[in-house]
Amino acid sequence: MKQKRKIGGESLKNRDAMNEDRISELPEPLLLQILSSVPTKDAIATSVLSKRWRSLWKMVPKLDFGFNNKQASSEDVYRLLILHKPPVLESLHLLIRDRNGRFDIGILIAVAFTRHVRELVLDHYNEDEDEKTVEFPSVLCSYNNTLEVLKLKHHVLLGFPSRVCFSALRELHLCHVVFESEASVCNLLSGCPRLQDLVVLRHSNFDVLTYTIDVPSLQRLTIEEDSSQDMYGGGYVINAPSLKYLNIKGLCLIDIFLMEKAPELVEAKIEGLSDIANDNILASLTSAKRLSLHFPLKIKYPTGSIFHQLVSLKLHINRIIGWNLLSFMLDSSPKLQILKLTGTVRWGGNGISRNVCQNVCCSIWRHWCGEATDGNENMRNKWPHTSSRTLDS
């Protein structure tokens, strides 16, 4: 009997240990880290668990609100922001899907700025193309020394009649936003002296014609256009002497692409750039170590330019234009080590289509010279700096 009681007592003790709320006994910094990793609505819901959890959500450094007429309203978000008072508001994400929410967005951003938010994401997403834009409060941008990341997406109107001041901003995403004028673009970018990463996604030139990016501190730049709306004209003027990474895609319908040389450039990917009369794209890339080029139309070759640092080249071959560009790049790249060629071409009158990746170097040489000799060997003789393994796709 004693043995049974002992066993039963231990079983009861183990059951009590299993029912013990050990999570609530964790240190507050660890609990806040846990709450930061779950959706904000779930973090707020923990306030009903116990006295310990009642106000814990108010100290969570990251908030993510998506509100529409069926869920939380802008009034609910405002009330929660007023109650929320952490030492530092690391990030605030606002996804607006109701028409009423756009009228209160200035108040919500003002509260976030007073809490010294470091990352702000504003997404005014809607499926109605006729939906009005939400205006970003320019009056709040005259001075801010805490915001480090700003991401604006979909139907956000940006009008900056004067220069802004985001002295700490290092990352800026402008995804399908609407600028009031070309001056607004300049006033925003010129007010970010520490900006390092800029992402620009656009629907061609439907807001401004000339998009000027003059940012001496910029290190990473991505520009991508959705040209499905067939809006021709306009272009880009870029001055970023500290640029290290460049990614351009879909600029098929523009008239201008002017870019100053980037002496610190490491890698550039160019895809879909149109036939621009005054382009200098290749001349601005001569300092790059890695290049990936896909030009659908003919471009200018910078006379006398040498790609002194280029070690890796990925090139899309399309018709004779591609061959000429390849010849120019090989002649201008004394340190080239890796060559990758992609695309499908059609040879002279034989009507044969061939994938460039299939013994492309041999095919190129025979196409140029009409020789039946080994193409790779001739290529190595012409460009001895290119290793044998890089000539075979």
UniProtKB/TrEMBL annotation:
Residue ranges constituting the F-box domain according to the UniProt record: 20-56
Pfam families linked to this entry: F-box, LRR_At5g56370
PROSITE patterns: FBOX
Protein name stated in the entry: FBD-associated F-box protein At3g49020-like isoform X2
Organism (species): Raphanus sativus (Radish)
